[in-house]
Every structure is written in C-alpha cells, then in structure tokens.
Amino acid sequence: MAAGRREAAGDKERSSTPHPHLRVGDTCPEKAFSSQRALPTPIGASLARPGGNATGISVQSTELAGKRLEILREALPNLRRLAIIGDVGYAGSVLEIAEVQAAARKVGVDTEVLEIRSAADIAPAFQALKSGAQALYVCPGALVNANYTRINTFALGARLPAFHASRDFLGAGGFMSYGSNYAEQFRHAADLVDKILKGTKPADLPVEQPTKFELVINLTAAKALGLTIPETFLLRADEVIE
C-alpha cells in the first residue's frame, strides 16, 4: 500500500495538526472538547452526563499506553529499554508518560524520558539519550504532533523504532501506530458542534468514545531499521505501509 503522508511544518512548535485537545470558542459558555483521557474530570462529571456547558470526544490516549507497550513488545520481543518522548509542559503527556512507565515496570522494561517543552529541545533530548534504548514511545500533543517529522528523523538516526498514537504521524520514518482515527474523531466533534449550534444543550450530549482502534505498521521504516516483523503480526494490522 502507498503511504499517505500528512505534511507538517517541522520547525513549528504548535500547529493545527489534530491533537488531543480541542475547544470551540473560549469566550462561548457552551463548549465541545476532545480529551486524551477517558474521563476529563476537570471538565465533565461523567462520560454519559458531562454536566455544565461541556461535552466532547475522548481519544483515550492515556488509557491505551499499556496496550501500546504490549503491542510494541509483540513486534520487538527482546525489548528491554524504552525511550519515551513527550511535552512535559502538557498535562496529558505527563499523565501518559507515567502510564507508560508504570506498564513498563510491570513487564521488566526500563524507561528513559526525553523531556521537551519546545521544538528547540528535541535535538538536545536525543543527544542526551543514553545508549541501550531499543524503541521510542511518542506521547501525542500539539508540540509533538507539529514536530513529528523531526522526531522521526532523529529516531531513525538513533536506530529507534518510533511508536505513535496515530498513523498521521508515521511519515518520515515512524515505525508503528495504535489508536483511534483522529480524522474520524474530529468529524464527530464537528457533529457535536453542529448539534450545539442548533440548540442542544452540551450537558445533554454524552462524551463520545472511540469505537475502533487502528494498528498501522510502516514496513518501509521497519526495513530501514533492519527489523523483521513476523508475518502473523503483519496480518493483524489494519494497514501496512510499504
């Protein structure tokens, strides 16, 4: 299959690339949001009844951290040390980093965190990376998403398979992704906004959760990294980029 690649400006720190948080009109009392967590407790009381003047969608990135690590270990059964990169100025990434570390400890995988707060931190973070890391877990967020090309390029240079939350970020050598379809999720967000604009109270609209998670493998990147992916694993993928 041909790889459909989303262009991104690698030198930008923030962009309009789909990311885990969306608000509609900060000055408007009625809002639709997207959350990286299943239950955005500061914003909504529950998924079914968010209450107040808010509703939205959840991409559940934080909750998928353990599952992503499980999938990565299936593809790389000898994984013993994992690097994690994330924007530590973004609360969603901090939560996901903690979830990945907790899941890794349970299976005896050591972790090293590459903390970034701006695009300028990416190169030094990779330069400071200790030897021994065998893969890179990429925590999504506006900063990371806007600079995925740069991150993937550094990861390839360090011979690290990069695992992302969405196939949108597999261009420029990303190895694999597992998560909800961002484009589909944001279409749902548009539907929610339409309902609100037509008079439905946000509190009456349950927070929508993804119903399908996609596993995408970039076989081109795997070959560039010298990785051999078992055929049985490839057959499980929703898409294989060749």
Q: Helix and strand layout, with pairings?
A:
Blueprint (H helix, E strand, L loop, with lengths): L30 E5 L18 E5 L6 H11 L5 E7 L3 H16 L3 E7 L5 H6 L7 E4 L3 H5 L1 H10 L4 E3 L11 E4 L2 H16 L16 E5 H6 L6 H6 L2 E3 L1
Give an overview of the whole structure:
- With 242 residues, the protein is of the alpha/beta class.
- It has two domains: 54 residues, no CATH class; 146 residues, 3-Layer(aba) Sandwich (Rossmann fold), CATH 3.40.50.
- It contains eight helices and nine strands.
- A seven-stranded mixed sheet has the order 4-3-5-6-7-8-9.
- The longest helix is centred in the middle third of the chain and has 16 residues.
- The radius of gyration is 18 Å and the shape is globular.
- The N and C termini lie close together (5 Å).
Number of domains: 2
- What fraction, in percent, of the residue positions are helical? 25-40%
Q: What is the top-level CATH class of the largest domain?
A: Alpha Beta
Gyration radius, rounded: 18 Å
**SSE string, helix = H, strand = E?**
EEHEHEHEHHEEHEHHE
Distance from N terminus to C terminus (CA atoms, Å) equals 5 Å
Main β-sheet description: 7 strands, mixed
Multimeric organization: single chain
CATH topology of the largest domain: Rossmann fold
Q: Give the mean pLDDT.
A: 78
> What is the level-2 CATH architecture name of the largest domain?
3-Layer(aba) Sandwich
- Please report the number of helical segments: 8
